[in-house]
Write a structure and sequence with these properties.
By secondary structure, this protein is mainly α. It contains twelve helices and no strands.
């Protein structure tokens, strides 16, 4: 086991140990999980399905620039397979599965795949940062909720991504650490490819916005499903759900665990008090969200894997090879 995996394992054990201990010590607060009506679960499951449909269309838009056209069942299946792999497989299992499929079936190189994937981060974080700042301003005006550190983080992301969008650099010589500089330059090169088409950029912004809306609605329904109120007894409104959803997006920066398991939950607990929500209830909502997501993936994944295997062959066995190629930036 290399050093990076060892550190990842140690961090994962520490995070899950903390969350497990917290749940044990505050077991009374988590009884709300048993109060959820099936109807609420069905609504969240539907929203998650729509989320994966949107992700599939996003993938189609990204790789269309390289001459690859996917059918609706194909890109939806790839969306499910990717999310399943990212949640249950080691390393970036989902990305590896998708990459090997696109290379075998559509001859899309790992380098082009990685560029398209990385370049989209610019759009995702730019829009999320903009919405987060707008949401925090509204919360401050409406209820007095504000956190300077989180505001500065999103402001820094907004400035950085906006500068990249306007000036479109492809090199980052000011970054002294080679490993970090290499990853940043991969993102910059990906953005340089995407920005050639203004209609593509506009559509990607649109899909990203749809995904944010779906994420906010999921949180809103989950809070309502358990009857959770803030420390003053007031319901958790859309703007506070927007704040939590966008803070959750920061977990994409932290890839210690698969699908940011434990990371997102810890972030939810850390920032919940900013909007006067109990950390226990924030964690309960995050756990409910995970459970519903796993159920949706469990239902949809068998058919999605069957579709992908029928066209792509033994991609599961070859995903590790694809993952290694992605990490090495292999453009073959």
């Amino acid at each position: 086991m290399n050093r990076k995996r060892s550190l990842s394992l140690i961090a994962s054990i520490a995070i899950f140990g903390f969350l497990g201990s917290y749940i044990w010590q505050n077991a009374e607060d988590f009884r709300v999980l048993g109060q959820v009506a099936p109807g609420y679960l069905a609504i969240v499951a539907l929203l998650y399905t729509l989320f994966y449909v949107a992700n599939g269309f996003q993938l189609q838009l990204l790789i269309k620039e390289f001459g690859v056209s996917l059918t609706v069942p194909e890109h939806f299946s790839l969306s499910i397979v990717t999310s399943f792999g990212n949640t249950f497989l080691p390393l970036r299992g989902g990305a590896g599965l998708r990459a090997i499929y696109l290379k075998k079936v559509h001859q899309l190189s790992y380098g082009h795949f990685l560029a398209s994937l990385a370049g989209n981060y610019i759009i995702t974080f730019n829009l999320c940062a903009l919405l987060a700042i707008a949401g925090m301003w509204f919360l401050w005006v409406d209820s007095g909720y504000f956190n300077a550190i989180i505001a500065l983080i999103f402001f820094g992301i907004l400035v950085g991504t906006s500068s990249t969008i306007v000036f479109a650099p492809v090199r980052a010589p000011i970054i002294p650490i080679h490993a970090i500089r290499s990853k940043v330059e991969t993102v910059l090169e990906g953005w340089a490819i995407i920005r050639r088409s203004r209609p593509l950029v506009a559509r990607l912004y649109g899909i990203t916005f749809i995904n944010v809306v779906l994420s906010v609605l999921m949180l809103y329904v989950e809070f309502e499903a358990m009857g959770i109120r803030d420390l003053n007894g007031d319901p958790i409104g859309i703007w506070r759900c927007l704040f939590l959803a966008l803070v959750n997006s920061l977990a994409l920066f932290i890839t210690i665990t698969p699908a940011a398991l434990g990371i997102r939950e810890s972030l939810m607990m850390m920032v919940s008090q900013v909007i006067e929500v109990s950390p226990s209830y924030a964690l309960a909502v995050s756990l409910l969200d995970r459970v519903v997501n796993i159920l949706v993936l469990g239902i949809l994944a068998p058919a999605a894997f069957e579709y992908v295997k029928r066209r792509g062959g033994k991609i599961l066995e070859e995903a590790v090879e694809a993952d290694a190629a992605l990490r090495a930036g292999n453009a073959e």
